[in-house]
Amino acid sequence: VQLQASGGGLVQAGGSLRLSCASSGRTFSIYTMGWFRQAPGKEREFVAAITSTDGTYYSDSAKGRFTISRHIARNTVYLQMNSLKFEDTAVYYCAASRFGGSISSRTAYDLWGQGTLVTVSS
């Protein structure tokens, strides 16, 4: 299984972006899928996740502004980001958790995409 993230770009504060994560694997729907981000000089942090039963989880900073969803037939997970802030600037990574673990922990995810850069101008 390979993951390909896309959709990043430059946006003004208050704007929106939708990130996509396409999976090459047919068993995509049984995994928990997550989005993480890493800002310059900071550690990679949890943003959002969606389980195989479509349960969703968000970090406090993402709650109310971001929405994670998946399209099974397209093998794709999305992250809709609204009301973007300067502090949302980061490289965003999608990841798959095939073997379980704490849903907001990096260690639970064993497959990672290459990252897509989101830059929010203030």
Summarize the structure.
With 122 residues, the chain is mainly β. It contains no helices and eleven strands. It is globular, with a radius of gyration of 13 Å.
Structural descriptors:
single chain, seven-stranded mixed β-sheet, four-stranded antiparallel β-sheet, 11 strands
Describe the overall structure.
With 122 residues, the chain is mostly beta strands. The protein is 0% helix and 48% strand. It contains no helices and 11 strands. The strands form 2 sheets. Strands 2, 4, 5, 6, 9, 10 and 11 form a 7-stranded mixed sheet that branches. The protein has a 4-stranded antiparallel sheet with strand order 1-3-8-7, with no helix packed on it. A hairpin with a 6-residue loop joins strand 4 and strand 5. It starts with a strand and ends with a strand. The model has no long low-confidence stretch (mean pLDDT 94).
Shape: globular
Terminal CA distance? 37 Å
- What is the succession of H and E elements? EEEEEEEEEEE
Describe the sheet with the most strands: 7 strands, mixed
The portion of residues assigned to helices is under 10%
- Specify the number of helices: 0
Q: Structural class from helices and strands? A: mainly beta
Strand residue percentage: over 45%
Count of individual beta strands: 11
Q: What Rg do the Cα atoms give?
A: 13 Å
Low-confidence stretches: none
Mean pLDDT: 94
